[in-house]
Structures are given as structure tokens and as C-alpha cells.
Amino acid sequence: xxxxxxxxxxxxxxxxxxxxxxxxxxxxxxxxxxxxxxxxxxxxxxxxxxxxxxxxxxxxxxxxxxxxxxxxxxxxxxxxxxxxxxxxxxxxxxxxxxxxxxxxxxxxxxxxxxxxxxxxxxxxxxxxxxxxxxxxxxxxxxxxxxxxxxxxxxxxxxxxxxxxxxxxxxxxxxxxxxxxxxxxxxxxxxxxxxxxxxxxxxxxxxxxxxxxxxxxxxxxxxxxxxxxxxxxxxxxxxxxxxxxxxxxxxxxxxxxxxxxxxxxxxxxxxxxxxxxxxxxxxxxxxxxxxxxxxxxxxxxxxxxxxxxxxxxxxxxxxxxxxxxxxxxxxxxxxxxxxxxxxxxxxxxxxxxxxxxxxxxxxxxxxxxxxxxxxxxxxxxxxxxxxxxxxxxxxxxxxxxxxxxxxxxxxxxxxxxxxxxxxxxxxxxxxxxxxxxxxxxxxxxxxxxxxxxxxxxxxxxxxxxxxxxxxxxxxxxxxxxxxxxxxxxxxxxxxxxxxxxxxxxxxxxxxxxxxxxxxxxxxxxxxxxxxxxxxxxxxxxxxxxxxxxxxxxxxxxxxxxxxxxxxxxxxxxxxxxxxxxxxxxxxxxxxxxxxx
Length: 595
Fold this sequence. Notes:
By secondary structure, the protein is an alpha+beta fold.
């Protein structure tokens, strides 16, 4: 008996079983969807508990109930989301089985041509039953397909909204409302009025984020022709102590420099005067959940490894425990969000990115199977979620960039194994490329032709702009394997792509062809700070504070100056108004030509 005969003999039984299976799964999905939580953060019981806390701000039992309820609601949401995901696909599988079991294919369209022993129907009965069955199955298959697609689409939309909304912890703001006598509760409309739109020109003229306005280490200075020396004071305009540790780089807007610092028990943000380094204010950030155990971080990362960002009106900082804060120019807290706890074996290090009125937070964490990684996009004025992007990647330490392509802002984020480009307006995916492995730390850079990414394993990759879906096989123009960084980010200088390893090798690649390095030079230091461009010149900052200004070309690399900061430095420089701002292990420095 061949396969067709077995299928034909058992087709009715298969059709009946698959139909009942479809009905069972469909009913289960229907009832599950009817009781589904669309927005975990709007749970009525959770809201009622928070209202009670407003009346009893010191009730620790209510605070504990709120945290438990918040966790329970989120767990229920994701359980139901997973049920919808599998149920929709089971519906599709069942519908296909019913369809195939009822269809008349090839020789089975005429049973007289199939010799089967046993009680097969007469041809006339067969055709009558098949006609009726095909009509019913067609309707059933169409209905199941529609239900499955609608459920899955709805689930994806719900997930995007709920991931961010459920993470925005409001109980801390309620406690602050009570502590401020209710004044904070009415402050939001005023804040929204003063956070005015910032022009692209203002963003471009300030070093408001990690690696500058483009996120690629390019400054507006056309050259770097001065040096500095800790022993003589040459080139050091001022230096001020920074008491609390931190590995995040400084950011500058106008007349202010901002730094975030933290240790196991303390989190703070500080603002300094650009002109003379005067400490303008220090703001201590309190964890709203004092019972939460401290996060574990590596010494190289620390508790404040992420670089801040600012739009000149508000300054934003995130710490290793996931606490995200917005402060005004005077250091007053505008809003606070607890996005943690964050599961990261080395500690959270991805820096904040600002694009217009949107704050972008890359929160890759855990392992790929944990499904915990995401990118949250928040409203800068309120901290409310605009949307959240779920990411099927493990923990990473890379900072995303925003590039404008054909009038559309594109967000590019890196983690093992994907480089993914998202439409910043709605979070939809534009394309992805499998170009990375292992612990991804370096951030991407871009030119008019390529997005360039690097990690010690598997190497560097130049991805041509354009394409949709998985472009791994279609848009990789070149790869490189030698002298690839594991911490610092690439730098594009004209027709060159520079790579600086943590052990001190600087390599240059042809930006259009990649392949073998054009040249490699070793420096007597280790590096965590990414290289920074000043026209044709490049600044390299070593961990011991030794600094080199070099001028790379296709033929080699000329050393212009050698400088000494006088203390360890693992942060990247900020550049504004002809000055360089560097955070050392214990001091904040302002470097520039002395007049």
C-alpha cells in the first residue's frame, strides 16, 4: 500500500481529528483573548492600589503589594502572549491538515482509478461528499487563517506598547508627589510647555551624546594642533575633582558639562561650568525600591558606564540597575523611570541616544532564550513610552546610532548576531544582517555607502545601505579579520576606516574594499576610549592617560603630538567650542590651547 492509498483510506479520520483540534484551539484562543490584558500598566487593581498609596504614602505594605501586583500582571501578559503565538500557529497547522485531507488531488479525484480493498464509497457518494467537504473546509480554512493572522498581529502590537508601559514604574513618582506636598503632581504640564523643540543645527553644534552629534566620533574642529602635559600644566585649562566613580563620558551643551556617577550605594548627576569647571550642582538619585539587592557589575564596567545625553533643557542619565532619570538645567528631577532590574553579566553600558523629542534606550540583556532584550523609545518631556521593540538577542554593550536615509531616520542597533535597522518613527524593522558574534561592545558607524560594524569575533563588516529583510547574503560589501576591537568603536576618516584594539594596535582599512589592513601601528598602552576625529587628525586616549594625535593616510600614520593627562582614563572625549573635555579616573579635565 503506497502513501496515497494510506492517506486516502485515512483522510476522513484525519479531517475529523484536525477539525476537532481546530475547534478546541480556536475556542481556547477566543476565551483567552477575551480576558487578555492589552496594557499591563492599566490593570484596575494596580491602579486602585496606587490610589490608596496616595492617601497612605508611608504604607510599606501597600508598596509591597504594588510591586507584587505589577510583576504578576506582567507575567500574565507575557504568558497569554506566548499562548496566542503558539495557538495561532497551531491553527494554521490544523487548517492545512484539514485542507489536505479533504482535497481531491491527482488520481484521488477519481476513486475508480485507485484500487483499495475495503469499504470505500461509491464514486457518486465520493463526489457528493467531496463537494460538500471542500465547501466547508474552504470556509473553515479561511476563517482560521484570518483569526490566526489577526491574533498574531494584535499580539505584536500589544507587546510593543506593553513592554515599555509596564516598565515605567510610577510608584516612585507617587512617593515624590507626597514628599513635595503635591506640587510635583501638577508640574508635568509646566514641564511640557518649557521643553521646546530643538533644531537640528543646535544638536549638531553640541556634544550631547556618546561620540558626538553623529555618534561616530567626528568633531567640528578641523585639526588638533595643541598638546597637554600634566607635569607642566600645558594645555590644561582646568581640572576639577569628581568624587563618585563612573566610566561614562562627559556630554556638553552650551555652557554646561554633565557627568553621571555611581557606586554600589550612590547614584548622582553633576553639572559643571564649561568656562572654569565650577561645580554648579549635584543631584543624588534615590532608588524607589530600597529592598532591591544591588546589581553585580564588573570592575571595568562599574555602576555608571553609560554616557548621558541632553537637549540643553533636560539632562538624562541611566545607571546599572536600570534607573533612568531626567533633570532640568538646575538639577531638579523632572521624571524617574525604573527600567530594571537589568540582567547583564558585566553591567549595563549602552549609552543613551536622543533624537528630536525621543529618548532611545537599548536594553539588551540576559541570553537570547530569555526574550528580555528590548529598545525603549520614550517621550523626552514625560518619560512615557512611545513604543518598545522586542529583540531576540542576548546582552550587549553597544550604543545605537541614528542615521537619516532618504528623509527617514533609521535607528541601527548591534548585538549577537544581528545588526538591525529600524524605522525610528514607529519601530518597524527595515533590514537586518548577521554580522556579529559573542559579547558585542563596539558601536556602529556609517558613511554614505555603508554601515560599518566591528567586534573582535567575527571581525568587521561593511553593510551596504538599502535592502529589506535579511540582507546578509546580498548587502555585505566587505569583511575584515585583523586588529579588530572588542571595546572601542570604529572611526571613518575620509576613505579610511580605523580600528583600535584594546591592546593598542591601530589599523586602517580601505572604506570601499576592506580586506587586508593598509597598515598597522602599535602603541604602548591599552585602550578603552574610542578614537575621535578632528578633520584629518585623530586623537587616541590610552588607559594610563597617554594621548597621541595622529594623522592617518593610505600610506601610513604620522604622529603629530604626544600628550599626558596624568591619570588613568577609560572614557571618550567630548569636544565643544575648540575645547576637549575628558573624564579621568578622579578628575574632569578641560583641554585647549592657552592664550
